[in-house]
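Good day; I would like, with your permission, to put a structural problem before you. What I wish to show you is a protein chain and, alongside it, a tokenised description of its three-dimensional fold. I would ask you to consider whether the tokens describe a fold that such a sequence might reasonably adopt. You will find the record immediately after this paragraph:
***
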Amino acid sequence: MRSLGHRPVTGGEEDPRVTELRMAVSRLRRELAALRTDFPDRAAAEDELAALAAMTCEGVPEIPRLRGSLLVLAGAIGSMSALSGALRAVRAAVDLFGEPARRGQGSLPRPDHSSDANSPRS
């Protein structure tokens, strides 16, 4: 089954979402390197961008890992207005991968109230 708007990867074709993510990460890395201002979380941002770049070389990245990387980046450089456009581009590229599946949603059995020690007894 194929997702709407996403082409399968066959015969050397790369997923266009991965291409977009790679370009966005590369842009943010370049802009961060050109930024002369030093800030406390710069090393964390650089490390996370390196990890994202590596993920784009390994095929389709895992969505939870992408979202985690985005959070680290937002925390590390979110207040740097000079990088806001490039950070938005990374976020948009991560959003192309969609939402991660929610674990356990609707899959937990309902508790049996008759055997619940805390339920009122009739």
Residues 16-34 form the longest helix (19 residues). Residues 1-10, 105-122 have pLDDT under 50 and may be disordered. The chain has four helices and no strands. The two ends are 52 Å apart (CA to CA).
